[in-house]
Amino acid sequence: MVLKKYNINPDLALERQKCTFDIEEIINIFDGGKEKTSQRRKIEDVVLKSGLCHDDVPEECMSLKERYENAVRKSCFFSKLMKTELQEITGIEDFETPAIRRIADALFKDISPFLLHLGMFVPTIIGQCTSEQLMIWLPKALDLQIIGGYAQTELGHGTFIRGLETTATYDADTEEFVLHTPTLTAHKWWAGGLGKTINHCIVVAQLYTKGVCYGTHLFMVQIRDLDTHMPLPGIKVGEIGPRMGFSSADNGFLGFNNFRIPRNNMLMKHAQVQKDGTYVKPARHGKLTYQTMVFVRVTLVNEAAFNLSKAVTIAVRYSAVRRQSEMRPNEPEPQILDYPTQQHKLFIGIATAHAFQLTANWLWNTFKSVLSDMKKGDVGTLPELHALSSCLKAVCTSDAALLIEQCRYACGGHGYMLSSNLPYIYSFVAATRTYEGDYTILLLQTARFLVKAWEQAEAGKTVTPTVSYISRSLKGEKNSWRSTDEGIIKSFQAVAAGKIALCVKSIRDRMKSGLDYEDAWLLTTVQLVDAAEAHCRSVILETYCNEVRRLTKSSSDNVKIVMHQLVTLYLSYWTLQRTGDLLRYSSISEKDIDFMQRQYEELLQHIRPNAVALVDAFDLRDEILHSSLGAYDGRVYERLMEQAENNPMNAEPVNQSFHKYIKPLLQGKL
Ligand SMILES: CCCCCCC/C=C/C(=O)SCCNC(=O)CCNC(=O)[C@H](O)C(C)(C)COP(=O)(O)OP(=O)(O)OC[C@H]1O[C@@H](n2cnc3c(N)ncnc32)[C@H](O)[C@@H]1OP(=O)(O)O
Ligand SMILES: Cc1cc2nc3c(=O)[nH]c(=O)nc-3n(C[C@H](O)[C@H](O)[C@H](O)COP(=O)(O)OP(=O)(O)OC[C@H]3O[C@@H](n4cnc5c(N)ncnc54)[C@H](O)[C@@H]3O)c2cc1C
């Protein structure tokens, strides 16, 4: 371990002695091998030694303007570091390296204003440009000669992309597009980095040529002068105002007054406008311009896992240090981690972080394989990827937000301190449930796919692997409950199949009673969201079990045991959460449920001695955790006091407001 090992809180030190497995083995599993762990640590060393992570004043004590300026400073120096030393170490394009994403959190407790540059601007250039356009913009973007964002959402529309109002009208005489914001609600709103930082932007606008609207397309737009950074004439741009999190990401607004850009600034990999204004539609699939969103949804599953692992590390370490109440009269106060209710709050967080991380890796591989199919001209696998990335983004970000909040509950009053870092982690993840497609909207997209899959299976057609359980269900295969991994997964698939069947029936019944398809669908949407969530649960459970089995094949017995205990905990937890559904759609009995409850409670006891070691195995350095409660040495109270003493509010013994207001009030002179 690279972490400092002096002055460790004695309770935490004892916890580490109880560990039954080799922590390094689990670290290697999640990094993807020993080599990757070593590369990641090298990257972390370089960034930590650079001195960039240091703030003179804690971020939470800065004004919004100071926070933004501090974040810009760090982003610039971090970018320089990425281009130099880090490039040498990674040897690959930076933005895909998970280690870079991890260590970025050592610099930014909140968000880098450059997040959207690497998160969406560069991926859009890669996915949407012709090879000529790529040659122009990609090197400049990677070299940070231009800095960009992604402006799709408007004041009036975010979810419904087809309803966007910004127009891009082609003028064949000058071979230019004229960008225009026709109404108040057409102003671009929310784009990260747009407020103050970026000079270029991908703009999503309704394309008009030869008097016809062809729907939304993507355009590369320079919005600020590269030298003075002033908005270009015809551009109205600014920051949208304080929000729950993302404080240093300068989310912005943008309006166009007949602003002209060259024809070549339409991103033309899939659809083109020729010089004379002729529109050439995408040859293969109508939704390829939505590809960056699919990419980000895939990466957000990883974000859910990573941020949850940070929160649960903080809460478990704190729970080992914190002593409160008594279990029996006159006995010493126990560590709060010894309360089964505390274990119930936290151990599911550890298991979920594992489940989401392995699912994220699997989804990333699926994404790469679909991209490779698409490069060969085959878009057949795209609908399944869209359905998977939609539901996994929705469910993983939503579960992670709930579990992170549970970690805060688990830390009592001190968890409410910004210095615990839990409020920052929560506000970041809470936003991921909304952006890049709101929870409900994305589950409804998956539901479309599931209903279609049902209809295909009914017609005797083969369906894709993630929904093959539908065919089994239609063949009349009855579910018989077994409390094994496979048995539980089969039962969750039976729940999903049962719910999809009911949705299909509801839609058909409603149509029989005279409604059209749209109304029948609309009235069934509560059930459809529920069915898509059930499908997603079955995907996560299956992926988690399969991946742990695959990845621990050559592990030591002790690692196999502890990793499998977490899998069983996860399966038991969700069985107990979903007893109503399982009683309805599987053959589970009350006796089985009693067994699962006892098994779950026993597992909490089995995992308890390894709890601290399991969070140590996330290998998160103190500089990444930024937490007074979760540091490796467990010196919680020392840090809280030190930070209180250094609070700028305590710099003067008497605040001037006493003389101005309180004293006159006390003396009746106000
Ligand atoms: C670490 C990185 C951090 C990055 C920070 C990011 C910060 C945040 C950035 C943002 O939020 S950017 C803005 C993101 N905005 C959204 O996500 C908007 C969500 N809305 C949509 O995606 C779409 O409007 C919609 C809900 C999918 C509906 O689109 P549309 O009305 O055009 O389609 P439908 O009629 O519903 O469906 C038609 C057909 O198309 C299929 N489809 C839809 N989307 C896709 C897709 N992305 N890929 C492939 N296919 C897609 C859909 O399933 C339908 O198929 P059929 O059922 O007809 O077969
Ligand atoms: C921190 C943050 C950063 C962001 N960054 C960017 C960015 O960089 N670039 C960018 O373009 N955008 C960005 N966004 C915008 C984001 O993508 C949208 O806010 C998001 O897609 C949700 O859209 P909306 O705000 O229009 O919500 P709405 O669609 O108005 O949703 C409001 C509610 O209505 C419900 N609803 C809407 N339509 C339906 C329907 N058809 N059926 C059932 N229920 C429905 C939703 O489920 C939700 O509960 C960002 C947002 C946030 C919070």
From TrEMBL:
Give GO terms for biological process: fatty acid beta-oxidation using acyl-CoA oxidase; lipid homeostasis
List the subcellular locations. Answer: Peroxisome
Which key words are in the record? FAD, Fatty acid metabolism, Flavoprotein, Lipid metabolism, Oxidoreductase, Peroxisome
Q: Which InterPro entries does this entry report, sorted A to Z?
A: ACOX_C_alpha1, Acyl-CoA_ox_N, Acyl-CoA_Oxase/DH_mid-dom_sf, Acyl-CoA_oxidase, Acyl-CoA_oxidase_C, AcylCo_DH-like_C, AcylCoA_DH/ox_N_sf, AcylCoA_DH/oxidase_NM_dom_sf
Catalytic-site annotation from UniProt: E436 (proton acceptor)
* Residues in Acyl-CoA oxidase C-terminal domain copies: 486-667
Gene Ontology annotations for the cellular component aspect, listed alphabetically: peroxisome
Give the protein's cofactors: FAD
What are the protein's GO molecular function terms?
acyl-CoA oxidase activity; FAD binding; fatty acid binding
Q: Where does FAD bind?
A: T153, G192
- The Acyl-coenzyme A oxidase N-terminal domain is annotated at 22-147
So, what pathway does this thing act in?
A: Lipid metabolism; peroxisomal fatty acid beta-oxidation
- What is an example of a Pfam family matching this protein? ACOX
What SUPFAM superfamilies does this protein's entry cite?
A: Acyl-CoA dehydrogenase C-terminal domain-like, Acyl-CoA dehydrogenase NM domain-like
Describe the location of the Acyl-CoA oxidase C-alpha1 domain by residue ranges.
290-451
Q: Which family does it belong to?
A: Belongs to the acyl-CoA oxidase family.
Its name, as the record gives it, is: Acyl-coenzyme A oxidase
